[in-house]
Amino acid sequence: MRKILILFPIIFSTKLYAEGTCLENSITQHDMNQCAGLDLKSASAELQRVLAEIRKHYKHEPEFLEKLDKSQKVWSSLVDSNLEMLYPLKNKQKNYGTVFPMCSAFDRTGFIIQRVAFLKKWLVGHGDGEVCGGSVYHSYCLSNDCSKL
Asked: Are 99 and 23 a contacting pair, CB within 8 Å?
């Protein structure tokens, strides 16, 4: 009986996520909160992947990397401040209900998606004639070593 109790959540969660999106298959608020958490985890992993890729391409640009790190810290603080403004009351669960974990995860995920979209310009590069590219490499240099040019 104990083995069945241990396996039931695993089997149930596999079925829950097998067809359609996690949120579409959610039955309870707890399920929805978990799905939002999974989305947040996925978005955070993508942000870390993009940052690592940028650091790899721009490894010969210490001033840029320093500014990137500073920008990330400020951005992270801004996200936290925005979420505090959106949900200002101290006891979040009591004041915003059982949907709070889901809502705050969705909001944080949205900020991360916007940040990833912004940062990807350093992975795509700019094309010929772009005079306002700043620190963004030309797209050619992202696939070729231009550090000696």
From this structure: no
CB 14 within 8 A of CB 6: no
pLDDT over 70 percentage in the chain: 85
* pTM, entire model: 0.81
Q: How many CB atoms lie within 10 A of CB 18?
A: 8
CA distance readout (Å), 4 to 12, 16, 122, 140: 12, 18, 50, 57
Sign of CA dihedral 130, 136, 142, 148: positive
Tokens of 70: 């500073």
29-143: which CATH architecture?
Answer: Up-down Bundle (1.20)
**Inter-residue contact 122 to 135 (CB < 8 Å):** yes
Mean pLDDT of 68-85: 98
Q: Domain segments of the chain: what residues?
A: 29-143
Look at residue 143 and give its three-state secondary structure: helix
DSSP assignment, residue 138?
Answer: B
Q: For 43-63, what is each residue's pLDDT tens digit? A: 999 999 999 999 999 999 999
Length of the chain measured in residues: 149
